[in-house]
Amino acid sequence: MAEALLGILLENVIPLVQREFAAFSGIKEKTEDLSHTLAFIKKVLDDAKEKQWSNPPIKIWLQRLKDATYVLDDVLDQLPTESSQHGWLSSFKPNNIMLRGKVGHELNEIVRRLDRIAEDKNKFLLREGVRERPTEVAEWRQTSPTIISPQVLGRDADKEKVVEFLLSPARNSEFLSVYPMVGLGGLGKTTLAQLVYHDERVSSHFNLKIWLCISETFNVRRILCSIVQSITKNECKVLELPVMEEKVKGLLQGKKFLLVLDDVWVKNQQLEFGLNEDKWDQLKSVLCCGSKGASILVSTRDKDVATIMGAYQTHDLSGLSEDDCWSLFRQRAFRPDKAEDEELVKIGKEIVSKCGGSPLAAKALGGLMRSRNTRNEWLEVKESSLWTLPNENHILPALRLSYFHLPPTLKQCFAFCAIFPKDESIKKQELIHLWMANGFISSRANLDVEEVGNMIWNELFQKSFFQDVEINDYSGDVSFKMHDLVHDLAQSITEKECMCLEEANHTDLPKNTHHIGFKCDEVTETPFRKGACEKTESLRTLYDLNWYAPRNASYFCPTNISLRVLCTYTSKFPSVENFSHLRYLGLCDLEIKTIPDSIYSLHKLEILKLMQCNELFSLPKHLTRLHNLRHLAIDGCDALSEMCPDIHKLYELKTLECIHCEFSKRT
Ligand SMILES: Nc1ncnc2c1ncn2[C@@H]1O[C@H](COP(=O)(O)OP(=O)(O)OP(=O)(O)O)[C@@H](O)[C@H]1O
Ligand SMILES: [Mg+2]
Question: Which residue has the higher pLDDT, 149 or 616?
Answer without folding.
Answer: 616
